Amino acid sequence: MDLAPEELQFLSISDILRESISIPRRSLKTFSLVTVALIFPLSFAILAHSLFTHPILAKLDSPYDDPSQTSHEWTLLLIYQFCYLIFLFAFSLLSTAAVVFTVASLYTSKPVSFSSTISAIPKVLKRLFITFLWVSLLMFLYNFILVVSLVLMIIAIDTQNSFLLFCALIVILLLFMVAHVYITALWHLASVVSVLEPLYGLAAMKKSYELLKGRTKYGAILVFVYLICCGVIGSFFTSIVVHGGDDYSVFSRIVAGGFLVGLLVIVNLVGLLVQSVFYYVCKSYHHQGIDKIALHDHLGGYLGEYVPLKSSIQMEDLAV
């Protein structure tokens, strides 16, 4: 980001995307290694998940399946789901930590390398994990309200209560269209805060909430576009690779699968870059400058470098 900090607040959504896409060119080797080592396994797991679960689910749906075999299939499915969630959770945090740290290092003109990024991840990961736990609690409350709304909708349909059905549909629509997108934006921004500021957990979420004020629309649009891209890629993968055995040859499915995985890798990389740039945009919008020297020292602390006592690692709110 070559723009002055005070100019970042004026970036439009297209400008944010343009700035994000241009960042990897500043350290192509580092971002290439991060992409191959972390983002590719994450993207592959997201798409390949349905490829591996589909045969198991097909057997469970079979009315001729032996009861003992069904028990085995359920056990296999639960084990696979558990391993998948652990893998997804781990590589999601690893990818976030690596990209945010690398972008911040470039922002402060700190030497960047794949080895330094990997060395910083263990300390960054702990902070991201605590923040993720608080976000998970928020998501639990969100899902609880969603389930209650679905139950009310079923009751309304059974009792033919049009008013109750209307209220349930409105709540569900708001949860999907507004709450889910907002919570996702809050989570992404809180993840960046957890890496770049001496805040994590609930404090990072509060800071993220404050930063989103005035830029909530931008954050919602960016998250919505990201989710739509992932959804479209996932739909094509499911229809062509997973369920396309009768319509496509094995070679066609392999080529399509490889292309879609590569496309998702690009989407995930750009998404992580966007959330990093969006953090600086929000800081600039609220006239909160970032002391690059303090940030430089803060990042160095993850690598075990000496942090001068006279230099606070906290980023104060400065009038631009």
Automatic annotation (TrEMBL):
Keywords: Membrane, Transmembrane, Transmembrane helix. The chain crosses the membrane at residues 31-57, 77-107, 128-157, 163-196, 217-242, 254-282. This is Polyadenylate-binding protein 1-B-binding protein.
